[in-house]
Amino acid sequence: MRPNRDLLSVRTGAALRTALVEGISPALEPSLRGWIRETGSLDPEEARLLLIRFDLVLPDSYRARYQKQLADRNARQAELNTEWEAAKAAHAARGQSEDVLKPFMLHLPVVPLPTHPCVAFLAEGTSATILWDLVDELLRRLCTEPDPAKPAWVVGFTKGHRQTKKITESLGRLLAESLSVYEIAPDRRGLRRRVEATLAAAVSGAAGAAESAGYSAARQHLEKSRGRLFGLHPDPSGAYDEVVRAVEAVACPLFLPNAQTPTLGTVLAHLRQSSAYEFVVPGKHGAPGGVDAVVAMMAAVWEGHSDRHAGGPGNVPVSREAAEAALTCASALVTLLSRGAVYRP
User: Are the C-beta atoms of residues 256 and 267 closer than 8 Å to each other?
Assistant: First the structure.
């Protein structure tokens, strides 16, 4: 899919760049419902289960309409079958050989089945307020994750890959053209909010640095934090939990390798009490750099986890803005620590 670019008026400075759209615009809704119809038709049984998942009752009118459409379809198919049989008999009467008849026999006209009533109801009869949830669930149920262990040319021949490509390419285009705030997640099995480009690059860079340095758990926690913060239903508190774990996954083995139950708090106490560490950025006049800046960032992440303990006056729900800022700090800390920016001389 070709990436979208700004409109000419934006590129020439005549207009401001359009903000991402939070909801479903009137222009997008018909096409999104069409995508739900087409995708749900790939597996009507999953569509039936989605009605249960969303506690929806299929109206009798949809069943009645389907039965009528099916009867009309079967009647038309019977007519075509009769016409085809008559044409085949006419060809045979003219003495044409079986080899000549074979291509003709393969072209029996087939009238497509009508849309399953459960699929039709999901696409037509549901409230616009649950459409994003429907899209998210269809991706989860009908798409497969990329398999990095297999060569691309092998994966390309699998049924799951072909179906996933068909589903995601059309949806991706709709999301891009409508400037939706949502995009398809990397595993292709759901939606997520678009991440601001600078933060996305910081998280990706930190994950790569952690993996290269042998801290794969830190990478996993960063990715989980991003997923929880930018998922279809954001979970700032859960995202913050993963932020703290991401920093701990590097800092604890680095600074307290022999501790049995280290936390970011104990790492902070250790760094504050020790003068054995230096920061790669030098101080004034070229003196060895102190770790105060790193400690301050760690403290901000650790102490800003405002809903870590329940029941006290300091228990404050984590805001989306706070979780996003903490993820930014954690990305910087994981990158610095993974690359040896804090060290013993």
Answer: yes
Which residue did the predictor score with more confidence, 241 or 345?
A: 241
pLDDT at residue 155 is higher than 80: no
Tell me what the pLDDT averaged over the chain comes to.
89
Q: What angle do CA 145, 149, 152 make, to 5 degrees?
A: 75
Instruction: Decide: 301 and 243 in contact? Cβ < 8 Å.
Output: yes
Tell me how far apart the alpha carbons of residues 313 and 338 are, in angstroms, rounded to a whole number.
36
Q: What is the pLDDT of residues 124-133, one digit of tens each?
A: 999 999 999 9
Q: How far apart are CA 231 and CA 142, in angstroms?
A: 18
Burial class (CB in 10 A: 0-12, 13-18, 19+), 119: buried
Check: CB of residue 32 under 8 Å from CB of residue 139.
Answer: no
Residue 87, token pair as written in the block: 């044409």
Cα–Cα distance list, 38 to 44, 172, 230, 234 (Å): 10, 14, 27, 28
DSSP sequence for 13-60: TSSPPPPPBSS--TTTHHHHHHHHHHHHTT-HHHHHHHHHHTT----H
**Rounded CA separation 287/285 (Å):** 6
Least confident segment among 132-146, 228-242, 249-263, 275-289 = 275-289
Q: Sign of the C-alpha dihedral, residues 78, 79, 81, 82? A: positive
The secondary structure of residue 304, as a DSSP letter, is T
Whether the model pTM is above 0.85? no
Q: How confident is the model at residue 106 (pLDDT cuts 50, 70, 90)?
A: low
